[in-house]
Design a protein that fits this description.
32% of the residues lie in helices and 25% in strands. It has 513 residues and is an alpha/beta fold. The chain has three domains: 6-246, P-loop containing nucleotide triphosphate hydrolases (Rossmann fold); 265-341 and 426-508, Rossmann fold (3-Layer(aba) Sandwich), CATH 3.40.50.300; 349-422, no CATH class.
Length: 513
Amino acid sequence: MASPGASSAPAVSVEHVRKAFGATVAVDDVSFAVPRGSVHALLGENGAGKSTIVKLLAGLLMPDQGQFSIEGQPVRLSSPRVSHARGIQTAFQEMSLVKDLTVLDNILIPYGPTGALGTIRRRHATDLVAAHLATLGLDDLALDEEVGGLELAVQQKIEIARAVFRGPKILLLDEPTSTLSGRDVDWLGEIIARLKADGVTVVFISHRLREVRAFCDDMTVLRNGRHIVTGRVADHGDDEVIRMIAGRALAQVLLSRPEQARGVGPEVLRAERIAAGKLRDASFVLHAGEIVGVAGLQGMGQLDLFLACFGMADVAQGAISIDGRRVTIASPVDAVRADIGISLVPEDRKTEALFLKLSGRHNASLPVIGRFLRRGLIDDAAETSAVASIFERVDVDRRALWTPVAAFSGGNQQKIALAKWLLAETRILLLYDPTRGIDVGTKNELYGLIRAYAEAGGAVLFYSTEIPELVHLADRVLVFYAGSISAELGGADVSEEAIARAALGSHEPGTAA
């Protein structure tokens, strides 16, 4: 028999929860409640405690102190299975998919329909998953394709689809749009609205306030592991939310575009009719001191361009020139050579940019470790001094010199990934969605570092899933559609509307490159 008032009890109650990892207190005496059937935003900077709360609710961690209640009933979420039994499902930012398994197997794990002998009923399972994906507009996914070969945005959709497939009462979405853009974000918004209409409670973590306002009813702000406020989203303006998140008023680096374009230097990189993977035909020029933005819906060839310029994709046609001379970039080793000087901050920092078990010092110095060799041995003092100077420049705590990067927040990890190339003194910086999953304060720090790099004479090619970043940061914007550059926008022509129009395959005459 239900307890009195159970029907009106919050879907989730967090009561004086504390969680520490050694000397680091991730969550400190946090209490808040999530109403049933609502979409509740959980906001805060990287390291504020948001993901720790999600992992506690998902049964991946146990609190040191405090209590969780689900629909008014105290619960001990001691494992993911216990959490699932309580109706809680999670789609993680750092995805939990098994890269070597197929789409079908990833969605079924560990609850596929079984027969009398405990074996998966493959035909029935295939029909169920295919029907489910069709309801989500993902019927173009090949169920027998290995997940590891899919683009990151597609993997994120599968992560979300799997959580929804399990029929949650409470759905935790940890930065679900960090790899999504444009229509994909709208796709998620439609799913959230449908789940809400069905009575599902959604906890939504995002650094994008526009999405919070579009999707969420209520919000909770955490800062430094402590609860700051819980209330209606509509009751708080953006400036107030940012102050609560960061604990200070942020000087918005990118509130407006510069009135006059910066002067740029000589040409440093030229791509002529490059074709690689989904990229069919792309040509552009990049100058010293210039930030060139790249926009496009997922899968339009922009990723293949970045990989081709860094020697990570086979170039089927076309040519790349550095300082006016044609070069062959067959591998990242070629790209980072001093006479070429190209570096890449990839879209997935945890699997492609960093060795999580190594210290920040070792991660940063690895591309140029030969610089610190003395008679075949590494000069630790010289290495430490050089890396410490770069970490100070990007505002990363000195403890990163000896601490594994896995211990740091996503924002600090991204700054370490950037510091690596600043230490290498590369002249051309390829940034593929570098602010993915980064809080507003760290974003502004990264914007400042990017602008400073360009003002010092570096050249930047910058892809972002967030169009406002391109509008306010880039000198020019290349927009990709169907494997080629559909428009090149500069000066007053750079606007959110113009970029969005070109990304959908329609642009005004005269804007093409």
